[in-house]
Amino acid sequence: MSSGAAMASLPEIIAAEDTPEGLITVVDETTVRAEVEAWRAKVLKRPGLWDRATRGTQERINKIIPERVHAIITAGVEAMTKGILFGSDLVKARPVADGSLPARELRAASCWRRRICRP
């Protein structure tokens, strides 16, 4: 096989400014598939001993607390959640659009590790 044929089979990296509207470029599909599979395995993992024990304790506590108290707490949590969701719309950061997909992925990964994200 000639080197020209080998080069033709490699995925083409498209700059963000050249990417057609609505098209998401995937540079390394095997990496993306591996990440999705790892996430899926983590989400679908059966609960461990600690999870089962805490669930049982929570169920016993819930049986002791009157239903009216549950309703009041639920209403409070719903109000806080609505406030947080409304506030998040006001301070939402614009998505990062500059750079290639790999560059944006690296920036997002480092941002996630530090738990501090800036546009």
Description:
This protein is mostly helical. The chain has a domain at 28-93. 64% of the residues lie in helices and 0% in strands. The chain has helices spanning 3-9, 29-43, 49-64, 67-90, 101-114. The chain is flat.
What key phrases describe this protein's structure?
disordered N terminus; 119 residues; flat; mainly alpha
Overall structural class, as computed from helix and strand content, comes to: mainly alpha
Please report which band the strand proportion falls in: under 5%, 5-15%, 15-25%, 25-35%, 35-45% or over 45%: under 5%
Portion in helices = 55-70%
Rounded to the nearest angstrom, the radius of gyration is 23 Å
Number of helices: 5
The count of β-strands is 0
End-to-end distance: 45 Å
Order of helices and strands: HHHHH
- Which regions are unreliable across 5 or more consecutive residues at pLDDT < 50? 1-8
Largest sheet: none
Mean pLDDT: 77
